[in-house]
Amino acid sequence: MIDQRAWSVRVHEDFRDLEQLEGQWNHWAEDPPFRRYDWQRTWWEVYGPGSLSRKRSRLCILEVRHGETLAGIVPLYREWHPLWGWVLRWLGSGEVCSDYLGPIAPACYQEHVGRVAIIALHALALGKSRFQDVTIDRSPAPRLTCHRIDWDGMRADDPAVQAVRIQAETLKWALDVRPTESSWQLALPRTWGEYLDSLQPRSVRRRYRKLSRAYLDHPDLVLHVVGKQEVFGTPCDDNWQSAWNILVQLHQARRRQVGDQGLFASTQFEVFHRRILTEYLPSGRAALAWLEWQGQPIAAEYLLLSGKTVMAYQSGINPDFLTLSPGHLMSLSLIREAIRWGFETFDLLRGDEPYKRHLGARPTPLVRIRAAPPQVSARWRFTLWNWGRHSRELLRRMKAKNIDFGGTMMEDDQVAAVDS
């Protein structure tokens, strides 16, 4: 049970009601830009009910107080799905792929805010204005239909996330918690030489040393960075759209080559980031970089900056220069410059691609939580979803082993090759 002193939760359905909390919100959000007020408000303005894809969505931000003290903020929205009903998700989730999401609170309140959030959602689903020493304020009525929560991109070791799991089980919610792709961080040493010496295994170290000698100091290879001058030593060009266009062109060209439409095929994705960069570039929270070989752009990177951390958020490579390993050259160039700029961590964010381990990064486990309150309609929908998930997993395993419905199977050595 949580502390027996008075807790209260106010449900906000309009960002204008939260403007006075912006400073506290950003202070508690700490470093990751994905948790900041400006990132999440911009996301809602672009991806909210004004968009074609989310016309039936509603803001649902929980303001949690302990007595008169603001204890935390839980930034959610709910979206209607024809099969799963009203689903609660984090602001900033979806194709923007924000990492490190979760309740926003100081360390002393994180666990409590996670517990109180689930208790409040439980009470709202049941149409109650009070439940287990938690008072819920939502006008005009206390009921808020919720058939499921679907929370992605959370650190597995987040105290608030762990509290959510425990409290949901206590309240008899149906619960599905599973790991997703990890995020990957590289602790930067003091010098470039130390970094190269630290790479493992030896084959990777030899390869990156060879790339470094052959290209990084070659006069035909030039790294351009657009960002705050005090950070990078180069002026922030107001006309940063040229750097942006290079990123978009290279990203889309590479994705089309591998049969994917690319993220920038989404108008909303591009609009969102153009708005974010308008604020983040001059303030030193973002940078755009591209790498040229003999005057031709061969790679580009969209960086987010947070304290002493550089985050490699989105990239693109020129498919006409694959023999140069442009992706590896861009990563190595940025890591070398990040050391020179004085950063301490290079964060490669979510995704378990092998190159991240080769660069020396270490994984931080992330989890996804799906849960349904103890109501007949919510449980029925959750059971249907769970059955569908198990069916898809079974089909994927059968496809991986090349099993058809007639019982044909590849030879054992072929199966082993596929599984590896």
Automatic annotation (TrEMBL):
Gene3D superfamilies: 3.40.630.30. It comes from the Bacteria. Residues 202-357 form the BioF2-like acetyltransferase domain. Signal peptide: none annotated. This is Cellulose biosynthesis protein. It comes from Thermogutta terrifontis.
